[in-house]
Structures are given as structure tokens and as C-alpha cells.
Amino acid sequence: MGRVIRVQTDTLTAPAASRRAARAAARPPRRAGFRPDHRPRRPFSVLILVVLAFYATGPLAVFVFNSLKSPAEISRSPIGLPSEWRWENFATAFEDANMGQGLLNSAIIAVSTALGVCVIASMAAYAMTRLDLPGKSAWILYILVSTSVPIQLFLVPLLSWWSTLGLYNTQFGLIVIYWAVYSPFATMLLRSFLLTIPKEYEEAARLDGAGEWRLFTRVMVPMIWPGMLTVALVAGLQAYNEFLLAVTFIQDSQLLPVSLSLYSFQQSYAVDWSLVSAAGLIMAAPVIVVFLLLQRRFIEGYTQGGLAN
């Protein structure tokens, strides 16, 4: 009787034993002195990251603190916390520096630049990758060379030409220059996107009777949409922050972008650094918000594009 009971018990526990053996075989071998409940720590890496974080956010924190101080307190303690939080500095700076008109002008210039660069770069990239153009390698070389030439070399002839064409001191004239400056890089980025798209999609659309324009707008543009969003974000932010071309080709105070409004305000109120800091934060706030909202798309566009293609 006892023997029968022992056989039944062994039979019932066999599946559990086999499962334990399978888990033990799948578990990686333990190293000597390694305990699975303790992960290896890297204090040096953590220290480096903390130092870099303070290095990146420290100047911005001082900038914020100075915008909430009085000029006398900035002189006494330029890097300390404000003893009295003067929130009215932002309203005063917004009004005295004419930041409202400057933000509106910058929004018009940045959005128009982003849209124009997307149209120009997407069409140029499509032509370089899908159309049978003579001398494709020469065009690629020309774009690479044009991106390496500094814009300062063309300021004098551009100024003369724009004055002759009536584009000087106009927002449209400045936007056209931005289109020419930012389109080469955008073209190379979108070209790398188009190179990753299989040509089977294009052949299927042609069999359905699609022409070049319909093929480009209905098939290719939706596939390279992440790249176009990245191009728009980069071109828009560059146009928003650009200073040299804006100060050269815009003179009317009602057409000044926000970067020139801040510069003019700083020249007029060079001593009142609290209002200058508040105006600088007002200028930087839209850029920070837009980047935080679109940073995932921005990173995806760069990683998916892969300029190595």
C-alpha cells in the first residue's frame, strides 16, 4: 500500500519538477559574487550626468531669477534667489519692448519660412531621387557646397539686388532669403527619407494611372511626413532666432521680428537687466513650448531620415 502511494505522489509532482528544471535551464548562469537583487551601480556616470544637468540649466535658472528682481538687487546678488518676486517685470518688458508686434512678425516669418522650405525641399528631393535628371551627382555636390558657404559672402550683392527689386525692408524679401538658406539641408534630409521608400509603391500608383504630381502629393508626401515635420520645425526655429539677415534687411520698426525688438530694447535699457531678462524669457517661451510639444517628432525625423544615405 505504501509503495502505491509513493508512485502516485511521484507521478503527480513530475510536471512541477519538469517546469522547475526548464526555468533553471533558461536562467542565465550567475557570476561569482553577483546577487540578482542588486544592480551594478555607476556613481561616476551619475555624477557626470548631474554636472551636465547643472551646466545646462544653471544659466537658465539665473536668467529666470534676474527677470524677477529689481536692478539694485541684481547688482547686489546676480546669481541668488530674488528676495521679492517682481512679476510685473514681464508686463513692463512686454509693453516697453513692443514684444507683441515682434512676436507676431516672428510668427509670420517663421511659419512662412517653414511652409516654403517644406515645399521647395520636398519637390527638389523627389526630383533628385525619382526623376531621371541629368547630372544628379553634380546637383548633390552643389547642395553640399552651398550649405558650407557662409551667407556673409552674399550680403552686399543681396542688399543691392533686393533694393533694385523692391524687396528690401519687407518681410517677404527676408522670407525668400530664408527659403534659399535653409532649403539645401532640408533637401538632403528629405532625400534620405525618399531613398528608404520602396519603388513598388510608385510602380503600383503608376499602374493605377497616377501622374507625377498625383504620385508626389498622394503617395510620397504622406510617407515622408515625419521628415517634413522635422524640416518645418528646424527651418521655423532657425528663422525665429536668426539675427544677422533680419537686422540687415529689415529697418521698419513695425516689421521687426522679436529678436530685433529685444536687441533694440537692450540698447535702450542697457542698465535695467531685470527688464531685459524678462523680455528674453518672453522671446524664448514660444520656442521652448513648441520644441517640448514636438520633440518626439523632431527626434523621430532625424533618426528615421539617416543622412548617411
From TrEMBL:
Keywords on this record? Cell membrane, Membrane, Transmembrane, Transmembrane helix, Transport
Q: Which Pfam families does its entry note?
A: BPD_transp_1 (PF00528)
Residue ranges annotated as compositionally biased, kind Basic residues, are 28-37
How does the protein's chain sit in the membrane according to the entry?
A: Multi-pass membrane protein
Q: Which residue numbers delimit the ABC transmembrane type-1 domain? A: 103-294
Q: Name one GO biological process term.
A: transmembrane transport
**Compartments in which it is found:** Cell membrane
Feature: compositional bias, Low complexity = 14-27
Q: Which InterPro entries match?
A: MetI-like, MetI-like_sf
Which residue spans traverse the membrane?
Answer: 44-65, 107-127, 139-162, 174-194, 215-240, 273-294
Segments of this protein annotated with the region Disordered = 1-37
Q: Per the record, what is one GO cellular component?
A: plasma membrane
Q: This protein's superkingdom?
A: Bacteria
The UniProt similarity line reads: Belongs to the binding-protein-dependent transport system permease family.
Indicate what this protein is called per its UniProt record. Sugar ABC transporter permease
Species name: Agromyces mediolanus (Corynebacterium mediolanum)
Gene name in the database record = yurM
